[in-house]
Every structure is written in C-alpha cells, then in structure tokens.
Amino acid sequence: MEMPPPPVELIGAAPQHVVSVASFRPGPVLCGGSPVAAVALAQPFPITHERWNAAPAPPPGALDYRFSFTLDADGRPGTIRRINPASPLGFYLDSNDLAPALAASRFAPGSPGRRCTIAFTLQLDPVETAPLARLYEIESLTVQPLPPEIAGRTHPAGSTCPRGPGGYRRLNNPAFETIGNASRSFAWSYLSYDTDPRGTVRGVRLLGSSGNAALDKASIRAVSADRFAPGPGYRGCIYHFYKTGGDILPAPMPADTPAETGDMPACRVDDATLKRLLGSSAYPAAFARRRIEGFAAVRYDTAPWGAIGNVAVLVSEPDEAFGAAARAGLSQAHVAPSPVGHSGCVQRIRFRLPPSG
Q1: What confidence score (pLDDT) does residue 235 get?
Q2: The whole model's pTM is what?
C-alpha cells in the first residue's frame, strides 16, 4: 500500500518588533493663502512608537497632520481644529501634543481673525539609527516606561550600572525655582556618572541637553552630591532632569460667546453631578502639560425629571479638546427636577490650572 505524501509545512517569518522614534516637523503657516512668520514656534515632543513588522514606506505627504486655526491681533493661535482627524498611518500614533504645541506658539501680529493652516510632517526613524540627542530628549521628558531598545542606545558604552546603583542615601534636585525657562517650553539635561565602592558619585558628565546652561550646571551639581549605599562601584549610570516653563497661558474668552442661562431653575446644573468635569481627569492632559488653560461654552436641553441631553459645543478655545471634555462632563450631569424642562440652556466652563510651585 502506497504511503500518502507528508503534509506540506508552511513556515512564516516570525513577527519583527519594530521600535521607531516619531518626530513631527512643522511646515509653513498660511493665512488666507499668504505665509505668516512664526515669532516663537513650539516644537512638538518626539515620542517612541512600537509595532510588529515594518509598514511599507508611505508616499510623500501621506504623513501630514493638518490643522486649521485663527490668529488674534497678538499672533496667538485659537480655534484649533484637526483637518484630518484619522491617523494617516492606518494605525494609532500619539499625536496629542501637536495642538498644544501650536497653541503655545506665537506668530507675527496684525492679522486677527484670518483662517490659517499648518501641517506637521511625521518622520519615523528606527531607534537603531535615530539621533542620540532625540533619544536623550525622549528619556528626559517621558515618565512612562520606555522600550528597552531606547536604553540599549542611550546608556554609555561599557556601562555596568543596573537600573540604579543601589539604595539612595542622599538624592538631590536642582533649585528649579531659580532657573529660567521660556513659558510652556521644556528644558532637559541628560547625565551620566560613576560610583565608587563607598557609594560616592564620581565623574558626572553631560551627555545631552536642550541648551539651558543654568539647568545643565545645576543638574551636574545635584547629581555630584548624590550618595548611594556601599557596593561594588558602577560605571555609566544615568540620570536626567527636566523643567517646564511655569507661566500659565490663560484661556481666550471670545466676546461673542452666548450668555449663560444658569439663573433659570430648569437650566441650573447641580454641581454635585459634575463629578467628571470638576475633577482633574477631565482636563485635557496634553494642554495641562504645557500649562495652557481652556474655555468652552455648551448648549443643552433639560427634561422635567432633571436629565440633560442634546449637548452641543458652541465655543471651544484654544482647541476642540476643551469642548469635548465639557460635553462629556455635562452629558453626565443633572438639573433639579421641575414642572417643565427647557430647551437651549447655555453653560460656560473655564478650565483652570493651579499655580506652579
């Protein structure tokens, strides 16, 4: 009896873990078709991106994140709106800092009310070839755990230092309050150092910096004074500091915002039901990071039993994220029951930040 042929084995390639550094390059600003010069253009934060298997190279211009906005008389952007809300990549990539970076920028004054556009072009670099300065910046500004591939490149060659060189005996910070920094910008210093068997810090050196000399000097002094538990001594340990420009950027308040109807019993929102909106979780985190406040006005209807519905955003400044947060919070709120509901109630909401320090 003839034996059947063996089954055909199809062995696919193992999925490849790809770690990239994503940078966003701002393009020219056009207002009414004419270019407008930037006085101070805030750069979006670089980030890391992880995926399995490399995607095919997209055509030129396919990786643009486009925004429309207006300028006031001082050149401050407002009414920021994403033109292409979906990711041009076909997969998620955190672009949440683009609108805050635009809101933190300043342009040539004198063209209030004009409709403007800008495009941020995404550049994806493999972590193996990304500039070290970019990796230092990402490590200095990111609080979440990063892919191990980042540390594989940023740790000095020949490093024998584990995650930390032992238990802290003394840990110092720079006197941040004495260090100047432009509002809503970030300064960072990335350092390497060694320890001896007594836990004394030796050989502090600056590997990377945003260029703030005062922060660099203070960071070196702080790390030099650190002390650790006795041990074998280590080479190539790292530490980094960052400082945020602390001045708060107040929310723009459009003069034509509709008046509130809070004096009407059927429209008066019960503050106790605004739990999400009154809590810090409602504040758009990317704007809080850059110390930018916001304002929203929403219209809504109320039912006799106190429910709120048909919530619509009328005003959202300087970006639509504040209107979305206001709508989500108000949709969960209630008013006191009344004989009749009301249509066309209006609520103004200011998003405020606590003073720094």
Answers
A1: 95
A2: 0.85
